[in-house]
């Protein structure tokens, strides 16, 4: 094992079994990132936390960052922690890099190099590197409303779906609640043009930048796109098409690889979806693509109070209903 920061060690499975080095390092806490929990005889000696994760680019480690980082903080109060995976190169390093990024407000590269200086063998896989970049973009926390994070989670789901590894609970967690007929008056909604049924909130729209063509699912190109869009401050968000996150009323079809999207009330066809993605007319590859046809829906804004200047220069609040466009 290698000490990478005060009271933080990184290592492999063999290191955790080595009682002497564990005791020399005064380890009190063990964070395991493995495919199975540690044997009970080790678990009984330390305060342990186990995250089931494989060293694969399409494994979601990001979602567990907050609880892992809290565990490391807890350990450092009165003890020391070893963060370990099988060999101590990818999974464990990723979590410690995330911790350093958060504590010191560092970018991925700087934090990675700090860990590498102490443990030269570390090498987070490309999927984990992508997740670290995304973590930095979300200001070192999980923001469930972040469009990039939503797209990341949908991509993870799409990959699992392709491998036939989807369970009922996964689908439940994936879908956002449908807006209801008596939705709060402040919500901006898209409604079916034909029957006026509320279909999805404006916040469900997933944005993409125009023209950054990316055909295949590849973490390397995703990573470079994420970095590129970071540096290009004048990136243009595509306005040509509506892509949304899957909504509850799509539950019956969403586990197919592709299909039609119809209004749950009047059954009018309003769009289509394909998990592996499609090309937007702007030139960008959008994956997954839950594509709503613009001419089948109306954007409905709530009633708003608009200040109006009266002829005698006095202001008055006037209620104005903005109609559906
Ligand atoms: Zn309808
Ligand atoms: Zn587009």
Automatic annotation (TrEMBL):
The keyword Lipid metabolism appears for this protein: no
Record-linked CDD domains: DSP
Subcellular location: Cytoplasm; Nucleus
Ranges of residues in domain Tyrosine-protein phosphatase: 1-141
Catalyzed reaction equations: O-phospho-L-tyrosyl-[protein] + H2O = L-tyrosyl-[protein] + phosphate; O-phospho-L-seryl-[protein] + H2O = L-seryl-[protein] + phosphate; O-phospho-L-threonyl-[protein] + H2O = L-threonyl-[protein] + phosphate
GO cellular component terms given for this protein: cytoplasm; nucleus
Alphabetized UniProt keyword annotations: Cytoplasm, Hydrolase, Nucleus, Protein phosphatase
Domain of life, per lineage: Eukaryota
Protein name, UniProt field: Dual specificity protein phosphatase 12
Organism: Octopus sinensis
Species lineage: Eukaryota, Metazoa, Spiralia, Lophotrochozoa, Mollusca
């Amino acid at each position: 094992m290698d000490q990478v920061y005060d009271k933080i060690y990184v290592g492999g499975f063999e290191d955790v079994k080595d009682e002497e080095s564990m005791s020399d390092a005064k380890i009190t806490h063990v964070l395991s990132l493995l495919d199975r929990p540690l044997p009970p005889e080790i678990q009984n000696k330390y305060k342990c936390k186990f995250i089931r994760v494989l060293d694969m680019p399409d494994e979601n480690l990001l979602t567990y960052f907050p609880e892992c980082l809290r565990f490391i903080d807890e350990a450092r109060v009165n003890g020391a922690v070893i963060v370990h995976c099988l060999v101590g190169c990818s999974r464990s390093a990723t979590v410690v890099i995330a911790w350093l990024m958060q504590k010191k407000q560092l970018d991925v590269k700087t934090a990675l190099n700090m860990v590498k200086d102490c443990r030269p063998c570390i090498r987070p896989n490309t999927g984990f590197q992508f997740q670290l970049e995304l973590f930095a973009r979300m200001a070192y926390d999980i923001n469930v409303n972040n469009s990039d994070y939503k797209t990341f989670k949908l991509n993870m789901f799409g990959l699992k779906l392709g491998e036939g590894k989807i369970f009922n609970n996964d689908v439940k967690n994936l879908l956002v609640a449908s807006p209801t007929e008596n939705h709060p008056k402040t919500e901006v909604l898209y409604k079916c043009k034909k029957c006026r049924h509320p279909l999805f909130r404006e916040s469900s729209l997933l944005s993409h930048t125009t023209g950054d063509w990316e055909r295949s699912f590849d973490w390397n190109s995703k990573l470079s796109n994420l970095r590129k869009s970071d540096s290009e401050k004048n990136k243009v968000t595509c306005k040509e098409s509506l892509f949304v996150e899957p909504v509850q009323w799509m539950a019956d079809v969403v586990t197919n690889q592709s299909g039609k999207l119809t209004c749950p009330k009047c059954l009018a066809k309003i769009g289509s979806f394909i998990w592996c993605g499609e090309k937007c007319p702007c030139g960008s590859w959008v994956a997954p693509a839950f594509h709503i046809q613009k001419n089948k829906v109306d954007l409905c804004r709530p009633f708003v109070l608009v200040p109006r200047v009266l002829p005698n220069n006095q202001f008055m609040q006037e209620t104005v209903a903005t109609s559906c466009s």
